[in-house]
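User: Could you check the structure of this?
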Amino acid sequence: PQGMLVISAGLFRETRRQTSTQGLIAVLGGILFVQFWGLPGILAASILANLYRDIDLLFFIPKYVTKLPVKNSFMRILRIFLTIVIVWFTFSFSSVPQTSYTEWMKHALFVTVYAMSIVLAVNLFFEKAVFCSAFRRVCSVLTRR
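Assistant: Sure, the predicted structure tokens are below.
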């Protein structure tokens, strides 16, 4: 989404250097890491490159596009991370039933409903106005014919 904001704002030229740096990190890191870890090394280099770009855009987008404080974006990222940790921790000590595909799907459905409930509750609690606006937009799209 942040990359799309840069493109839609017409600021691609202004971010050429950062985009090239991201590509350079991915290529050089991939060449270096593949020697030690193989394919997972290439994945690690790609993750590092994208992490660099995400941090760069965390500061670029608020400054040049939205004119909002960086703190708001950082707090949202932190909230998402904590929500993921809560959902992960809840099920990290449970084992998935291996008896059949249907048992596995039941367990997966339960985890999905639980995770969606936690995400919706956190967003409703911390950003009620944004949540309600998004909910109204989704409802309007679903009711159009």
